[in-house]
Amino acid sequence: MKKQIAVLPGDGIGPEITKEAIKVLDAVAEKFGHEFNYAYADMGAIAIDKTGTPLPEATLQVSLESDAVLFGAIGDPKYDNDPNAKVRPEQGLLAIRKALGLYCNVRPVTTFDALLHQSPLKEERVKGTDFVMYRELTGGIYFGEKTLSEDKNTASDLCQYTRAEIERIAHKAFTAAQKRRNILTLIDKANVLESSRLWRRVVTEIHQKNYPDVDLRFLFVDNAAMQMILAPYQFDVLLTSNLFGDIISDEGSVIGGSIGLLPSASIGDKHALFEPIHGSFPQGAGKGIANPIAMILSAAMMLTHFDMDKEAAAVSAAVDKALAQGVCTPEIFPENNYSTSDVGDFIAKNIA
Ligand code: IPM
Ligand code: MG
Questions:
Q1: Which residues are CB-contacts of 146 (< 8 A; sequence separation ≥ 6)?
Q2: What's residue 62's pLDDT?
Q3: Per-residue pLDDT averaged across 83-91, rounded?
Q4: To pair with 52 at 20 to 30 A between CA atoms, which of 126, 136, 185, 215?
Q5: Is 65 exposed, middle or buried (0-12, 13-18, 19+ CB in 10 A)?
Q6: CA-CA distance, 7 to 86, in Å (whole number)?
Q7: How far is CA 77 from the centre of its chain?
Q8: What is the average per-residue pLDDT within 150-176?
Q9: Averaged pLDDT, 299-317
Q10: Nearest to 114, CA basis, from 351, 317, 322
């Protein structure tokens, strides 16, 4: 198969980990007889530095014309602590999500047996944890109307959802649950928020009409945050709005022992983008210590999106092998001394 992939390495460690993912994709192409063509473009702080805007038109064009987008990381500390900054790298990511219609963000949280001891939680709580988060990505408080009063002392962000926005992601989450352990948990704040009550109503209706076999559960987001560390193994598919999903997915991402391991997919009806959950880790940039596995697994999710299931399985098997043999960066195996590119080489070699 021939695929056109837009590659946006982004900021911080983004370029280093992207390089390793491409190495692995090239190994997949060779082994399975595919042709992957890459179109590189800038997004984030690097794009602001070069063009003044975090999502240049050319980057958007390349992304719109590709079969998928592979994205590294975004963010630079020089913007983080300046509330008056007019442009921010993150605006690029939000803009591309909106422009490509990527409303469904999928974040799987799995644990690796070799790493259970790394978890901040007790091993017996972590063991067996395997869930996937469906986070709404182009609506809610992230994209609602924002106001700042003239005297700059009053500000607001509107959290608005429509039935249609909830329905389209709910269908995806229910379908995913049916292919897994058949449990869907809606996370909201329906005891307080009107928009959450709309989520409950719409999700309940869809459940009764289309997916009555799925075990549908509800959890308030504060309780969900607690349950996630008390008994993360209880979850199968989680469905939630944009902001709650942002927060809960960071919490979920550390359960397995390193945020450097978790991939994500952002899917729309026409386009898809794949990126690791972690950020740009600017302190680690250029040192060869960044863990490329989340990025490599994001590329594997892209392969699954291309219906290349065998290929995706080959990548995850190679990742499992790396972790089982202690081939990973120092935050996981400090004694073993493997660099970012050593890890990429090992995984690529174990595909070919
Ligand atoms: C994420 C990130 C982004 C978000 C930021 C970088 C805008 O935290 O993908 O979770 O809040 O969605
Ligand atoms: Mg986040």
A1: 155, 156, 157, 158
A2: 98
A3: 87
A4: 136
A5: exposed
A6: 26
A7: 21
A8: 98
A9: 97
A10: 322
Give the ligand 1 atom nearest the CA of 93: 7
Give the phi and the psi of residue 53 in degrees, each rounded to 5. -135, 140
- CA distance linking residue 250 with residue 248, whole number of Å: 5
Pair 76, 12: CB distance under 8 Å? yes
What is the per-residue pLDDT across 275-291, written as a single tens digit (0 to 9) for each?
A: 999 999 999 999 999 99
Ligand 1 contact, 251 CB (< 6 A): no
For residue 83, the model assigns a pLDDT of 76
- Quick one: pLDDT band at residue 118, thresholds 50, 70, 90? confident
- Residues 146-163 as b/e (b if ≥16 CB within 10 A, e otherwise) read eeeeeeeeeeeeebebee
CA neighbor of 299 nearest in space, from 95, 69, 110, 9 = 69
DSSP state of 291: -
In this model, does residue 82 exceed pLDDT 90? no
Distance from C-alpha of 252 to C-alpha of 259, rounded to nearest angstrom: 9
Contact 322, 347 (CB under 8 A): yes
DSSP structure string for 51-101: HSSSS-HHHHHHHHHSSEEEEEE---HHHHT-TT-S--HHHHHHHHHHHTT
Reported as a pLDDT band with limits 50, 70 and 90, residue 252 is: very high
Atom 2 in ligand 1: residue holding the nearest Cα: 246
User: Which residue has better confidence, 165 or 259?
Assistant: 165
Is the pLDDT at 117 greater than 90? The verdict is: no
pLDDT score at 115: 85
The residues annotated with a catalytic role in the active site are 142, 189, 222, 246, 250
Mutational test site, ligand 1, from 11, 91, 93, max ligand atoms within 8 Å of CB: 93
Position 330 scores a pLDDT of 93
What domains are defined for the chain? Answer: 1-103+268-352 (3.40.718.10), 108-145+159-258 (3.40.718.10)
Token output for 123: 């091993």
CB atoms within 10 A of CB 268: 18
